[in-house]
Amino acid sequence: MRSVLATLLVHADQVVPVSSLIRELWDEDPPVSCLTTLQTYILNLRKLLATATGLTARQVAADMLVTRSGGYLFRTGRGDLDVHRFHQLVADGRRALSSGDDETALSTLSDALQLWRGPALVDVVAGRILEGRRQQFEESRLVVLEYLVDTQLRLGMYREVLTELAALTADNPYHEGLHAQYMRALYLNGRRAQALEVFQRLRVNLVNHLGLDPGPLAQDLHRSILNAEPIDAQGGLRRPTGDIVRMSSSGAARVY
């Protein structure tokens, strides 16, 4: 039942076909009773929603978890899901970055990331649909983190980003952009040897696991650090000219 709710919420305000819900629950091997079981899940969800909202089950069926031809629709308002707020804050942060207002971008993107309370859909058994959305949400969060760190570096917050970058590079051992940001922050903090160690760790991970060398961005930065050349904080991500992320309305037992 939790997976049904999650699938409906990641497609909030859209009709989700019965076939998609069945595929999410049972992949390519649904039981003979799958339609009856799905209908039972929907009925139980309406009862739970009625209890949670104080509405009657009939009202929930008419206004919230609605039956449509061939499927179901979970109706929300624009402020009902955290992801709506996240998406709006990211859009505001993008506009601030595009206009060169780093201070506003820092505040807005920080507010967006504070809406996250852990990995997306962490307490839901994910099938194909939910796993795809989970990856989308996690990638969107990572992109926003990159832009936030880049903004912090431009504002001279070299020490403030070190702890976050240490964790991010450990969690994303092949992510060259994050490693380059970590190298830059360490070097600007006077920790040249550690910055070089970060590059070597990235290179070992890429070569050993993917058969690749680091790309030009990391290579050029490594060369500059190796030669003790002066660098600034302007060599990270470009300011966006379009959307940083595009996310569909989403949610689950936990909503991000």
TrEMBL record:
Superkingdom classification of source:
Bacteria
Family named by the database record: Belongs to the AfsR/DnrI/RedD regulatory family.
List the stretches of this chain annotated as a DNA-binding region.
1-76
Q: Look up keyword Chaperone and say if it applies.
A: no
According to UniProt, the name of this protein is: BTAD domain-containing putative transcriptional regulator
Q: Known PROSITE patterns for this protein?
A: OMPR_PHOB
Q: Where is the OmpR/PhoB-type domain?
A: 1-76
InterPro entries with a match to the protein in the record: AfsR-DnrI-RedD_regulator, BTAD, OmpR/PhoB-type_DNA-bd, Sig_transdc_resp-reg_C-effctor, TPR-like_helical_dom_sf, WH-like_DNA-bd_sf
The UniProt keywords, alphabetically, are: DNA-binding, Transcription, Transcription regulation, Two-component regulatory system
Which source organism?
A: Streptomyces viridiviolaceus
What's a Pfam family this protein contains? BTAD
PANTHER family, sorted = TRANSCRIPTIONAL REGULATOR REDD (PTHR35807:SF1), TRANSCRIPTIONAL REGULATOR REDD-RELATED (PTHR35807)
